[in-house]
Specification:
single chain, 238 residues, alpha/beta, 8-stranded parallel sheet, 3-stranded antiparallel sheet, 6 helices, 11 strands, globular
Amino acid sequence: MKIEVYSNADAVAQKAAALVAAEARAAVAARGAFVMAVSGGHTPWEMLRALAGEDVPWDDVHVVQVDERVAPTGDPDRNLTHLHESLVEHAPLRPERIHAMPVESSNLQAACEEYALTLRTIAGSPPVLDLIHLGLGPDGHTASLVPGDAVLEIKDADVALTGLYQGRRRMTLTYPILSRSRRILWLVTGSEKAGMLARLRAGDAQIPAGRVRADHALVLADRAAAGRLNNDAKAEVA
């Protein structure tokens, strides 16, 4: 796992946007399409706004969700709400190229299977995503793979439901599809993440994030989040 450290969250977001754009161009040149999965959070929303100004082959891009809260359309808790505000309103990405998790379904288990089918349709069977953006929670969760939840043990499905977490159930991608992705891009900012970033770097499987494959992962962190890393574990960039 490579870790690059930047001066602040804005610099992380700008670097992430440039990296995603480069990955998109390479994927389209090699395979004709780029499929990216995005999580929620302030820094990734800044990344998506910055991505709108990058050189991206938008006609060949698909955006899928890493996870989503079970909440109504337009609810501020929904990652989709911020995804539209950050990307669709600023970039020439056709709305149908954003594939929303169907969390408003009356049958959420069937909705997980429906989303898994969507992923197979756009990314092969089994689906291999070109890039998955992940965040890191102060409790060590990533996506909606949260401590103590049965979702952590799912090995035979790419999309699953969690129990209640911070007042909401979630739909989330699972470890199998995370492990198949061509690139994992972690964005980690803020001093409250420093302890967990050190545990992620150490491959600590006691936290959910530590169970994600590290051999194709890049972490972009700010100095606050990198505060507990040894100097040999990080590359200070800006």
